[in-house]
Amino acid sequence: MRTIESYLRMLLIMTLCYLIAEWVIDEPKGTVLFNPYVLGFLFFIFLLVISFEVIIGVLERIADQLTTPEQRVALEEAKKQKALENKWKKRFAEWLIGKQTTPEAQLILEDHNYDGIRELDNPLPPWWLYLFYLTLIFGVVYLGYYHLFGGSDQKQNFEQEMAMAKEQIETYKKTAASFVDETNVTVLTDASSLESGKSLFEIHCAICHQNDGGGAIGPNLTDNYWILGGDIKSIFLTIAKGGRPGKGMIAWNNSLKPQEIQQLSSFILSLNGTTPQNPKAPEGTLINQ
Ligand code: HEC
Fold first, then answer.
1. Of 198, 216, 195, whose CA–CA distance to 207 is shortest?
2. pLDDT recorded at residue 190
3. pLDDT of residue 136
4. Could you say which architecture CATH assigns to the domain 191-286?
């Protein structure tokens, strides 16, 4: 009885500590348990509670040895009296662990005997039994829901969520005025945008295209010949997604913002028709602009 009580107490204390951690720490619910500090703290409390229980056990044993037989009988009586008063507590304990096996009950042995191993015919503890029934019910519900009536599985959930996210992206694109991509990009002509485009170009692109766009490793960006298309949308797409594989023009959409790519594209278009110092020979097809 005492051991059961201390198990329950321990469980209660640990749950309480966990709930407090969950409440105090500002993280998404359920993730707190994986925080190493919380785990360490819970383990510390666990050790503390165990040592507390052990000390109580030792003290009780010492007290037991100090009492005379008469005192012990009187104590037993008092305990029994108290147990009668604690009827609900007793019932709950009985429900939890089943009726205590009396010495007579222990004699209820099964008939079989395997190499001296015998079996006791004790009733199962209710908590175990009801848990077992619960798993049966769960199994039936699960079978019905997923296998007979086609409840949605993880794959379907994933697809649903992806579709929802796509929709959200679409509505975001429509509502966010500042959002640019290759479908709605326009040429910027104001001086400050072109200035930003120029400085971005000098930082990121000039090594391959030259400061004046005349071309080196990358093609000449000032002529009317384009490999990947010379309108604002094509240029935006080339910068965002990169050139043909293996040519050296990488996708910049991971390191540059859409607005920056728009400024760069506009700046490149503003270079059209200028005369660079060392122009590279035209590449691609002639596009009259
Ligand atoms: C490592 C060298 C390198 C860097 C850096 C580089 N490019 Fe390029 N770029 C290239 C190459 C090579 C090509 C040709 C791609 C192909 O042939 O598919 C190219 C092609 C292009 C084109 C298409 C030209 C056409 O004729 O269709 C544009 C526009 C362009 N780059 C702009 C940029 C911008 C803007 C940056 C900076 C954000 C940049 N590039 C940085 C090497 C580079």
1. 216
2. 92
3. 97
4. Orthogonal Bundle (1.10)
**Percentage with pLDDT > 70 across the chain:** 92
Q: Is the CB of 244 under 6 A from ligand 1?
A: yes
Q: Is the CB of 219 under 6 A from ligand 1?
A: yes
- Per-residue pLDDT at 2: 61
CB 169 within 8 A of CB 233: no
* Beta carbon of 242 within 6 Å of any ligand 1 atom: no
Q: What is the pLDDT of residues 227-277, one digit of tens each?
A: 999 999 999 999 999 999 999 999 999 899 999 999 999 999 999 989 999
Per-residue pLDDT band at 1 (split at 50, 70, 90): very low
| Whole-structure pTM value | 0.52
- Give me ligand 1 centre to Cα 267, in Å: 14
What distance in angstroms lies between residue 190's CA and the mean position of ligand 1's atoms? 24
Contact 47, 17 (CB under 8 A): no
